[in-house]
Amino acid sequence: MRFFAAYFVVLHHAEQIRLKYEMFNWKFFSIFNNGGFAVTFFFVLSGFLITYLLMKEIKQRKDVAVKKFYVRRILRIWPLYFLLVFIGTLAMPYLLQVIYSQYDMPYNFHQVILYFLFFTPFMVNIIFGHHLLEPLWSIGVEELFYLIWAPLVKFLKNHILAILLSVIALKILLLTFIQCSESIHPYMVKVVQMLQFEAMAIGGLAAYIIFHYKKDISKTILFSKPVQILFFAVIFLRLMFAGILTENTIIFRFLFNTPIFSNILFIVSFAWLIVNTSLNSHSLLQLNNKVLNFLGEISYGIYMYHMLIIFGTVLFLKNILNSMNGMVSSAIFYVIITIGVIFISYLSKKYFEDRFLRLKEKFN
After folding, report:
1. Cα–Cα distance measured from residue 153 to residue 69, given in angstroms and rounded to the nearest whole number
2. Quick one: DSSP state of residue 351?
3. What is the CA radius of gyration of the chain?
4. Distances from the Cα of 198 to the Cαs of 38, 55, 330, in angstroms?
5. With 70 as the cut, is the pLDDT of residue 137 above it?
């Protein structure tokens, strides 16, 4: 599931960049506009996994080793994150100057480095718009969540459910407030929208329920085959046909485009999807195989490197691709970026990230 979510982000940015450079593109199809939707899935998954593991640690040790938790997060997230920061703020601007590229970086090193160092790269997106390190905004949101969540669980371990529900309620109130108010600064509105702690809290709520539910979930109505078909159908229609359906059907406009409600609906759907896929023995969606497991393992790299691969492909092959038929150029474009991002992510995982992941095992 991590791979599919990461690849939806790849599709989103690929068409965004092709549109920007006036290349043949498929930006008008809904399937190529699901980047934000996929990132929300990542937030739900992070909240689910982290909360479940913290509760498991409390059950086994009666406590949470916060320092070890932070070290594990640092060893998993920081090496690749700061490598991309170096590439996107220093190496790429220098390289683009050397090759006399017409691309103008929307920022310079001094303008953005503090945002990246203090894990607020979403502010770079808000202030400077689209850029090569755009995907890093979600890493900042997750790191802020990790920073807060582990100590909260440690010191308020008997009130985890109340904390999760409070986070969800507070975020809904904030979203409602900014919907109703016209006096809030646009930057503040975007910060509230991007700090999707409600998605991580709902993922954590699903983990809390599963952790304390002692029965086989496959025997419950919520994970029966008819309900699975309903959930899968709604998610599929949202991914593939959201644009057409919201234009022509009131019920889908309500499901997909209602402020706050639609967001919460699909966050809950993602939480259901994670539980169903991982724990339902009768799940209609079976993803456990060697190829998808491999792609899932390198999905962090796919998410982090894809903008560089897409931009490099467009920079060097734009004229050649524009001289071809649209369908042919698209096929070649996606073969290049798909193979490129998987290959780079594999090399990064094997020769760079794994060095730190082996150290991470010492802090389990």
Report:
1. 12
2. I
3. 21
4. 15, 19, 37
5. yes
In angstroms, the CA 362 to CA 2 distance is: 25
What does the block give as tokens for 153? 């669980």
Over residues 167-218, the pLDDT tens digits come to 999 999 999 999 888 888 999 999 999 999 999 999 999 999 999 998 899 9
d(Cα 71, Cα 249) in Å, to the nearest integer?
49
Other CB atoms within 10 Å distance of the CB of residue 160? 21
Number of independent structural domains in the chain = 1
Structure confidence by residue, pLDDT tens digits, 40-58: 999 999 999 999 999 999 9
Cα 172 from Cα 180, distance rounded (Å): 12
CA 330 to chain centre: 25
By percentage, how much of the chain surpasses pLDDT 90? 88
Evaluate whether 306 touches 17 at the Cβ level (below 8 Å). Answer: no
Give 29's Cβ-side CA count (13 Å radius): 11
Residue owning tokens 């070290």 = 71
Give dist(CA 153, CA 172) in Å, integer. Answer: 22
DSSP class of 89: I
Alpha helical stretches, state H, the chain: 2-20, 35-61, 66-86, 92-98, 109-117, 122-128, 136-155, 160-180, 186-194, 197-212, 225-248, 250-257, 261-279, 290-297, 299-322, 326-348, 354-360
Single-letter amino acid code for the residue at 284: L
Which residue, among 80, 86, 138, 73, has the nearest Cα to 112 in the 3D structure?
86
Say how far residue 348 (Cα) sits from the centre of its chain: 19
As given in the structure block, the two tokens for residue 243 are 């644009």
Half-sphere exposure in the Cβ direction for 144 (13 Å, CA): 20
Q: What is the pTM of this model?
A: 0.95
List, for residues 300-350, the tens digit of each pLDDT value. 999 999 999 999 999 899 999 999 999 999 999 999 999 999 999 999 999
Sequence letter at residue 68:
K
Whether residue 364 has pLDDT greater than 80: no
Q: Which of 163, 155, 172, 235 is nearest to 201 (CA)?
A: 163
State which residues form the domain around 302: 2-363
Copy the structure tokens of residue 179: 């919907």
Could you tell me the two tokens for 206?
């699903």
Q: Tally Cβ neighbours within 10 Å of residue 332.
A: 15
Please state the separation of Cα 241 from the chain's center in Å. Answer: 21
